[in-house]
Design brief:
The structure is a homodimer of 176-residue chains. The first copy, chain A, has 176 residues and is of the alpha+beta class. The first copy, chain A, has helices spanning 3-11, 69-77, 99-105, 158-162, and strands at residues 48-55, 61-67, 87-97, 110-126, 137-142.
Chain lengths: 176, 176
């Protein structure tokens, strides 16, 4: 599986991709440049938990989905669409068996967060004007060194997020 | 598997059990009453993430391990033992495949947080005097309605936590 396919999958539960979309301002076939968010939001590691998930297969990660205060409030209140300034992020670590825990359990059953994955951090940033062409969300993806994922790899996931347009493009539900 | 065994397993990566321990104050065989924490710490759902994990088998949960500010600071700084007032908690949800995500992926690989488990919330509360007999931590466990787990079921996990005495009895490591 190539990197683009992997990234597409990486993004599906949360974020990652902005497609090149047709400009809506003119009658021609002009394409607007995709808008990729290139900065990691400050303080994301302190954000509150939306939910957790495990992606098996090629991704093989375990992840925490977090939200800034605006996003968390909207999730808890059931506000749709999400307000301006909402940011939802996810951190993905390698999905690793814990020998230490398994020993304590006396059986193989414990899987924990290992080192950062290739698509370690992904965010969706709500700005309904700036990112109007992609549902009001700007998308981003970073490796563990904070390096944005290649633009070439950022072209295939928005159609996935469109599948949950009714939940404002967010796959992840708030875990109660 | 009976409930006690399940709870023992439930607690191993984080919390859950206080054993009846021998009183150290006298030469007799008197036993001190175990000290079970019966209150859910306020605001725990807003706490920061320590890590995430999946427990397969009987537990079949996916969990977020959180810490209050004192615990998070200690984790990040590598402070051992954890300071007074530190609380580490974990929320466990049923580990459920996400049909919606799998459809988007085009393959079965996505597992998400479902409804609360029987041992939904567990906490370790640091008070080195009050809980001196159990390594300075008080343990608690609650179902989704906030009902503490039965005392009878709270008698078998402290020996597990002792296996990681060198990390101040905490199995979960901070995920970076």
């Amino acid at each position: 599986m190539n990197r683009i396919a992997v990234l597409m999958i990486a993004g599906v539960t949360l974020a990652g991709i902005v497609v090149s979309i047709s400009a809506v301002s003119g009658p021609t076939d002009e394409h607007a440049d995709p808008i990729f968010v290139k900065e990691i939001p400050a303080g994301y590691r302190d954000w509150k938990v939306v939910s957790v998930a495990h992606e098996a297969g090629e991704l093989n990660d375990i992840r925490a989905v977090l939200g800034n205060d605006i996003a968390i409030k909207a999730y808890r209140d059931g506000t749709l669409p999400f307000p301006e300034g909402a940011i939802v992020g996810r951190i993905a670590w390698r999905y690793e068996p814990s020998e230490e825990n398994n020993k304590a359990f006396g059986r193989d059953q414990s899987f924990v967060a290992g080192s950062p994955t290739e698509f370690y951090l992904q965010f969706m940033v709500k700005d309904s004007k700036k990112y109007a062409a992609t549902g009001g969300w700007g998308y981003s993806s970073f490796d563990q060194n904070g390096k944005p994922s290649a633009d070439a790899a950022m072209t295939s996931c928005f159609p996935c997020h469109q599948k949950v347009q009714g939940r404002d493009y967010l796959f992840t539900r708030y875990a109660r």
